[in-house]
């Protein structure tokens, strides 16, 4: 499933190509399923193979969580909890979460895993992380939502900019200035592409970036203006080079704290989830003060 060829699979596990081929044939005979299409020396997983692979990952994730729970009972000092998140949540926000967690569990450690939402979802499914913060737009039916972390979009403008004097900013007004855009897939998912097309015929895109923290950095350097979510703005609330204001149009960045629905959380993971919720509430409170000041 991971290597897509019997040769690479054999190399990965230290076996032989013929041995891997034999095992695949035996598995297909035993299950009465066609698990791979053979195409020019490559193994292309069928739908049945993908479903079987996901189920195997769930089973192993359950065993890993049981081992982790037993480890916590027998040797608390060795306990570890794993959090997966996208880059936007990995800076000040994650720092706040882990700081809160360590005050309660000073002998335990948090392993922070970074990646795009699709990757974090896959790591959750495989049991590689205990909790994951993922964006909407993905199939999350295999997970349990622990916290809705949806955030209303806000405007980011340089502190000396004319718009910085406004109490709130309309999208059409923001788009009169050089704009820092996100990559196309994110613009479409958040509904920005259609809104911008309705309000601006001559959009000046100064840069295209992946994350809100990139938008904030460029805005603080005077590159242009942009739209960000609360967790990205959180890292810049003390900066004198950037100002945040409410966006008059309701645009939401949807994100969720998720855990596998098939496996119970360990006590440490439950505690970390509580710290995520508390930190998210703190971010929202501090940002509300900042954008109204």
UniProtKB/TrEMBL annotation:
PROSITE patterns: HTH_LYSR (PS50931). Residues 1-46 form the HTH lysR-type domain. GO terms for biological process: positive regulation of gene expression. SUPFAM superfamilies: Periplasmic binding protein-like II, Winged helix' DNA-binding domain. It comes from the Bacteria. Keywords: DNA-binding, Transcription, Transcription regulation. InterPro entries: LysR_HTH_N (IPR000847), LysR_subst-bd (IPR005119), WH-like_DNA-bd_sf (IPR036388), WH_DNA-bd_sf (IPR036390). The keyword Transcription applies. Pfam families: HTH_1 (PF00126), LysR_substrate (PF03466). GO terms for molecular function: DNA-binding transcription factor activity; sequence-specific DNA binding. Belongs to the LysR transcriptional regulatory family. The keyword Transcription applies. This is DNA-binding transcriptional regulator, LysR family.
